[in-house]
Design brief:
Order of helices and strands: HHHHHHHHHHHHHHHHHHH
Radius of gyration: 21 Å
Structural class: mainly alpha
Oligomer: single chain
Number of strands: 0
Strand content: under 5%
Shape: globular
Helix content: over 70%
Length: 423
């Protein structure tokens, strides 16, 4: 028995490492511009709404890529799709490095940035969906939920890791440096995938029958609620992209892009810690309870990040309060994001769907929810910044996770059980 178990472990590790690296770099690439891009865009004459459009262009196109991805996965396979899409992202990201010099005037700059972010988003949609599908196919049926949870955590880790890297490289080397570095990392990963092919990709399809339509999974209530929760978590992350940097560069903080990147670094550590502990916590309190707790922490963080005008008399404005609130929200994101996909899979199985048949659909819907959250958060942030000051906008946005959290309450009993063996 030992000879057969060892290769299986190797296959799992190789596949999951590629999936995690691809999703981390893909979402890092999306969030990379948060600390510095608004400054550059304002210098080119763009308004806050225009900046929000650029930030929203990529996640909006990710949604389109995610919807098309299952058809491609059935024809060429998850690994080939993942490898091709990560190399495409490297190419489009490298092109983004030249926009600041080649696009003179606000309109050419807006068009060029939006077009490149759309292309990046399409490739990102294929990357995220292929990674989730490959992760599910690379492990035994008992560990499908765990594998997808790890990949989901990697996505969030990329989102919160991008700003520190972007801020430091922009401050040190200029506008082109963050994009060139991200493109290089993705190119190295893509070339490595050309050489190292996990044996799991050569395995036959786990089920000979065709996959059910992706939209059929939306008939499952647990899937719908988990998708709404994922949307709210991703919205809370991307809401900060067009809003936090102007708030922290203005008095009384007056932080540099590098310092803002370090603030995001604290959030990265908090998110990674909670994501790593999410599986243990979920086994104790259940998927639904953990997601509710995470959403409530996000809401609390957004109330205190400004802080909200009605909180200022009790707390006051300080860098310590702001950083603590951001860390609290990041911890909530790590807690709420990881159990969402396992809840979707177990809920689908309870309604008669085979996890092996529906894995591409679950992967596509999870990518779609995260991408829609990215669109919503960026647009909300850009529009709110035009009407309200940051403390007011953040406290109003806190209403969203507060409204979503009670939706998970009906699933608390089933969530307390261990994730079932999926077949």
């Amino acid at each position: 028995m030992e000879p057969s178990s060892s290769p299986k472990t190797t296959i799992d590790i190789a596949s999951l490492v590629f999936c995690c690296l691809a999703t981390t770099l893909s979402d890092l690439n999306f969030a990379l511009i948060a600390p510095f891009f608004p400054i550059v865009a304002l210098a080119h004459g763009l308004t806050s709404t225009g900046i929000g459009v650029i930030f929203a262009a990529q996640p909006l196109s990710v949604m389109i890529g995610a919807l098309c991805a299952p058809l491609v996965l059935e024809r060429v396979g998850a690994f080939v799709t993942l490898r091709s899409s990560i190399l495409a992202q490297a190419l489009f990201t490298l092109a983004m490095a030249s926009v600041d010099r080649l696009a003179a005037g606000w309109l050419p700059f807006l068009i060029a940035c939006t077009a490149l972010r759309v292309l990046q988003g399409l490739a990102c949609g294929f990357t995220e969906t292929a990674a989730a599908s490959l992760a599910m196919r690379s492990v035994s049926t008992q560990h499908i939920a765990t594998a997808v949870g790890v990949v989901s955590a990697s996505r969030g880790l990329g989102v919160v890791s991008g700003p520190p890297l972007g801020g430091v490289t922009f401050d040190s080397l200029g506008f082109a440096a963050p994009f060139a570095l991200a493109a290089l990392l993705m190119f190295i990963l893509g070339c490595t995938m050309l050489v190292v092919v996990p044996l799991a990709t050569h395995a036959p399809a786990p089920n000979a029958t065709s996959n059910p339509p992706t939209w059929d999974l939306l008939r499952v209530s647990a899937v719908l609620v988990a998708l709404v929760a994922m949307w709210s978590v991703h919205s809370s992350i991307t809401f900060l992209a067009p809003t936090l940097q102007p708030f922290l560069t203005a008095p009384p903080f007056s932080l540099s892009p590098s310092a803002i990147g370090l603030v995001f670094m604290f959030c990265t550590i908090a998110f990674a810690l909670m994501a790593a502990l999410a599986g243990v916590i979920s086994s104790i309190i259940g998927h639904a309870y953990q997601m509710m707790l995470g959403l409530l922490l996000i809401a609390a963080g957004y109330v205190f990040v400004g802080p909200a005008p009605w909180v200022i008399p009790f707390v006051g404005t300080s860098m310590g309060v702001t950083v603590t609130a951001l860390v609290l929200a990041a911890m909530g994101g790590g807690l709420a994001m990881v159990p969402a996909t396992p809840l979707m899979i177990s809920g689908s199985q309870a309604e008669g769907f085979s996890a092996r048949q529906s894995m591409d659909g679950v992967a596509a819907l999870a990518t779609l929810a995260g991408s829609f959250g990215g669109v919503s958060g960026s647009l909300f942030g850009g529009c709110f910044a035009e009407v309200f000051d940051f403390p007011t906008a953040a406290s109003l946005f806190a209403i969203i996770p507060l409204l979503v959290a009670p939706l998970l309450f009906p699933f608390r009993k089933g969530a307390r059980r261990q994730t079932p063996v999926l077949c």
